[in-house]
């Protein structure tokens, strides 16, 4: 089965962790949208668990760097939003289990 660019972007996002929570940002539900243009441009719209997150810049830079490292990606645009605000219900079932929210 061929791996699509979207699959690769999602896989890369599964390797980015919030330093305060031992779960990746994708399973935490912090990634709201991924758009991939025909020209290889990738847009990621994401949020953080809290607006005052002290590692916001670090996480966003890591997302940017990991996306740019994917073959076929020509550019990355990582945007931060707090609309809608993140809630625990946005996590995957696996993440909620791991963190004891079930």
TrEMBL record:
<dbReference type="Pfam" id="PF01883">
    <property type="entry name" value="FeS_assembly_P"/>
</dbReference>
<dbReference type="InterPro" id="IPR002744">
    <property type="entry name" value="MIP18-like"/>
</dbReference>
<dbReference type="InterPro" id="IPR034904">
    <property type="entry name" value="FSCA_dom_sf"/>
</dbReference>
<dbReference type="InterPro" id="IPR052339">
    <property type="entry name" value="Fe-S_Maturation_MIP18"/>
</dbReference>
<feature type="domain" description="MIP18 family-like">
    <location>
        <begin position="6"/>
        <end position="78"/>
    </location>
</feature>
<protein>
    <recommendedName>
        <fullName>MIP18 family-like domain-containing protein</fullName>
    </recommendedName>
</protein>
């Amino acid at each position: 089965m061929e791996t699509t660019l979207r699959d690769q972007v999602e896989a890369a996002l599964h390797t980015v962790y919030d330093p305060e929570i031992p779960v990746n940002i994708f399973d935490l539900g912090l990634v709201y949208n991924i758009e991939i243009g025909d020209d290889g441009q990738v847009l990621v719209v994401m949020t953080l668990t809290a607006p005052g997150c002290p590692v916001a810049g670090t996480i966003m830079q890591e997302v940017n760097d990991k996306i740019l490292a994917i073959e076929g990606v020509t550019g990355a645009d990582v945007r931060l939003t707090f609309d809608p605000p993140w809630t625990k219900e946005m996590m995957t079932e696996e993440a909620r289990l791991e963190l004891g929210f079930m």
